[in-house]
Specification:
- The chain is an alpha/beta fold and 491 residues long.
- The protein has three domains: 280 residues, Rossmann fold; 117 residues, Up-down Bundle (Four Helix Bundle (Hemerythrin (Met), subunit A)), CATH 1.20.120.640; 53 residues, no CATH class.
- The strands form five sheets. A four-stranded parallel beta sheet has the order 4-3-9-10, with helices on both faces.
- α7 links the parallel β9 and β10.
- α6 packs across α7, α12 packs parallel to α14 and α16 runs antiparallel to α17.
- The structure holds one RNA strand of 76 nucleotides.
Length: 491
RNA sequence: GGCGGCGUAGCCAAGUGGCUAAGGCAGAGGUCUGCAAAACCUUCAUUCAUCGGUUCAAAUCCGAUCGCCGCCUCCA
């Protein structure tokens, strides 16, 4: 059974879906006014793995991830660029989709846009006014926070604390500084939609309520987002949603930790961010994905060159093993024997451990999606499999075949949920790493040098062999003489 | 000021009451190798920021102290 840390209760809880066998999940997407940065990537990757994991466990998942495509920042950006808000939004939605595709993030089942749900938002706002939870001032509509008894239950703060600490200039039209805008009257030239209160545009929080209601219902299982959304965004969502429906809005609130740089939050306002595409120009997407999954999703993760290099080293290690498996299995046929007939006693524990990987992986993931631990389990098995490969000479071929193909299957199986470890080793070592621009020779030239070097080695001309090794080394190519021949990898 | 979180080896990082504190990187020694690399083996925290307390038993619970971070304003 899956246990999830719920921000609302500050505890890990057993996941009990509203509808047995189904998960209704909403993740706050991005405001599309600029390229997304690594912090956005973290949430996307983490919640992608979580929704994949639910599917793996047999749940019917409806995953909604929205785009905020109307907002002050989009309007400002449009002004700066002399274009329209709609064009700005379209451009960065496109860019986001490209970034996500490169990171291997699956498409959500529904990817709604705020501007496509104005009607739904207006309906919710109307209902809130009728129920006395909202009021109209000069074409603006504000939510009356004091009218909702549970306000503060998600972010664990009470109204007095917040008023004491209020340090923003207060919109004079609000009855109370904590009240927030549901609908904003548009200024001339701004995007505007007709409403009972005059032309305007929605406030930020109302979109998630309206889109969540429409695509998932008035109560759904999971609502996810970055920790910085807890207050005020998610707190406000709860207030307006529950005030409107009279029902519990969301059962489990999940919040991912930040990506830090030098122990500081990566953010637009600090200017210390790297866009996803900048990072992907330097590091293969799989490195980034492994890096993001190597820390539990609720903890902060520090972005640094060293940490990305660690992730790369991990992938080198994994794919070296995968290459070893592949080389062994190449050209051999699956034996028509039962595993228990041919696997010798000494290898039984390894075989059991391989078959057990799926189970222990799921135990780790069941515990609040502990990808870091799950990856540790994978590397633990990598070492065992490498040991087996190192000693495979003396083994029965049919038994070795069964063990190694079972290992390949097991790694593949868990890799699919994480979205890593799935490539062909050859592709990893060559295409992926070549893509980082570290090798300054074309592949054909490299192969030619290797051929020349092996001729030199055949006549025991070690000086020439070493000279060629050095030439390739300077071009960023490392050579390894294996029993099956010489292979090369980017340094 | 209010609220929340974190502090585990040189580095990254699991572990939240009880077997030997996962896993990776880096380091040291070894096997292998024409030389290398990879891989494998051995080694690498008597100790979990500090100090007290609770308990038969704590990195894990409680209190205090120090340090760091986040939210309270748009923020994944």
């Amino acid at each position: 059974m899956i246990k999830i840390y719920n921000t609302l209760t500050s505890k890990k809880e057993e996941f009990a879906p509203i509808t047995p066998g189904a998960v209704k999940m909403y993740a706050c997407g991005v405001t599309v006014y600029d390229y997304s940065h690594l912090g956005h990537a973290r949430g996307a990757v983490v919640f992608d793995v979580i929704q994949r994991y639910f599917r793996r466990k047999g749940f019917r998942v409806t995953y909604v991830r929205n785009f905020t495509d109307v907002d002050d920042k989009i309007i400002n950006r449009a002004k700066e660029e002399g274009t329209t808000a709609a064009e700005v939004a379209q451009k960065y939605i496109q860019a986001y989709q490209e970034d996500m595709a490169r990171l291997g993030v699956s498409r959500a089942d529904v990817e709604p846009r705020a501007t496509g749900h104005i009607k739904e938002m207006v309906e919710v706002i109307k209902g809130l006014i009728e129920k006395g939870h909202a009021y109209v001032v000069d074409g603006n509509v504000f939510f009356r926070v004091a009218s909702f008894a549970g306000y503060g239950k998600l972010s664990k703060r009470n109204l007095e604390d917040m008023q004491a600490g209020a340090r923003v200039e207060v919109d004079e039209r609000k009855n109370d500084p904590l009240d927030f805008a549901l609908w904003k009257a548009s200024k001339p030239g701004e995007p505007a939609w007709d409403s009972p209160w005059g032309p305007g545009r929605p406030g930020w929080h109302i979109e998630c309520t309206a889109m969540g209601f429409k695509h998932l219902g008035e109560t759904f299982d999971i609502h996810a987002g970055g920790k910085d959304l807890i207050f005020p965004h998610h707190e406000n969502e709860i207030a307006q949603s529950e005030a409107f429906s009279g029902k519990r809005f969301v059962n489990y609130w999940l919040h991912n930790g930040f990506v830090n740089i030098n122990q500081e939050k990566m953010s637009k306002s600090l200017g210390n961010f790297f866009t996803i595409r900048e990072i992907l120009d330097q590091y293969d997407a799989e490195i980034v994905r492994l890096f993001l999954l190597s820390t539990h999703y609720r903890s902060p993760i520090d972005f640094s060159d060293g940490n990305l290099k660690d992730a790369r080293a991990g992938l080198d290690r994994f794919y070296t093993m995968k290459e070893g498996i592949k080389n062994y299995l190449a050209g051999k046929m699956p034996p028509a024997v039962r595993p228990e007939q041919v696997i010798e006693g000494a290898d039984r524990p390894l075989y059991e451990k391989i078959l057990n990987l799926r189970t222990v992986f799921e135990e780790a993931m069941d515990d609040d999606f502990n990808t870091a631990f799950a990856i540790g389990l994978i590397y633990d098995l990598v070492r065992d499999v490498n040991k087996f490969i190192a000693e495979v000479e003396g083994k029965r071929e049919d038994a070795a075949y069964i063990i190694l193909s079972a290992a390949a299957d097991a790694f593949d199986n868990v890799g699919k949920t994480l979205g890593i470890f799935l490539r062909d080793p050859e592709e990893w070592f060559k295409a992926a790493r070549l893509g980082e621009g570290k090798v300054s020779l074309p592949m054909e030239k490299i192969e030619e040098y290797i051929h020349l070097r092996n001729e030199a080695r055949a006549r025991k001309d070690w000086a020439e062999a070493d000279r060629i090794r050095l030439v390739l080394d300077e071009a960023g190519v490392a050579l390894y003489d294996r029993s099956g021949g010489t292979v090369w990898k980017p340094k």
